[in-house]
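Journal club prep — side note

Before the paper discussion, L.F. wants everyone to see what a predicted structure for a comparable chain looks like in token form. Sequence:
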Amino acid sequence: MKYSAYIRYTQFLVVLVFLVIIAGGVVRMTQSGMGCPDWPKCFGKWIPPTTVSQLPPDFEKYLKQQDIDNTFNVYHTWIEYINRLLGALLGIFILIHAVWSFRKFFYTKRSVFLWSLGLVVAVGFQGWLGKKVVDANLAVVKITTHMLVALLIAAIPVYIIYLVREREKVKHATLKKLTSLALILLVLQIVLGTEVREQIDIVAKSLNYTQRELWIDRLDVFFKIHRSFSLVIFAAVVGIFLKSKMITQLSKVALLNLILVGVLIFLGVVMNYVHIPAIAQPLHLLFSSILIINLFAFRLKLQ
């Protein structure tokens, strides 16, 4: 296949973005978001401490920025630091991608290079936003923006692959409109989800991260909207599947979308009735991210 190595590398970038997203979910699951209370360094060091004795003399000014327990927790620190390292590694691979795109497509398919350059800009903005999230002590608006930019970073390589392959689109006006609607609904659902996640963090902190059976009951109307909205998205994805199951180019992707929605609803039920088990949170985040990118790839096939 023409450009096969380039396409495989671009697909690898998508996988790496998902790894960074799930790493961010683990950070939230373990309440490690302020494990490194400064940025880009961690406790003023490029390699964070592993013991209290390795903390800098002015370490208290860093601990005061934490809103969890204001003490040094080596596990929180290194979980957050590994998350940052994965983000930095993603940035390096994306820079390599931009150079490769310039050499291969600047004079033939310049749009591919421009989108690759846009990917570099998006990752740079994400890094800057990460600093702002830390400076604002994980403010919810910045967390939401952080998540949306992460999805954009995952979507751009998918679009680049579409540009390189130049495959013929399927003409289906109804599917095109329904898929576009489903994408909009998913973005809204993710925004609602980040609001719910922030509320869970507040409730969890107020209960000293215990008594999980009380967390759901203390959430406000945003949780109910988020929960009910999932049924609307499920209906949209079912509609997409039914209208595309007889179209060879679309049926497998549509089936995967349906499976992903089913997994997400299952995880939602688990979190609702099994008191938000910690592992369900990053999994819910990961599968919702995969769903929106897979649905975006599906939309690219439609004319």
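L.F.'s comment for the group: The longest helix spans residues 173-206. Keep this in mind when we get to the figures.
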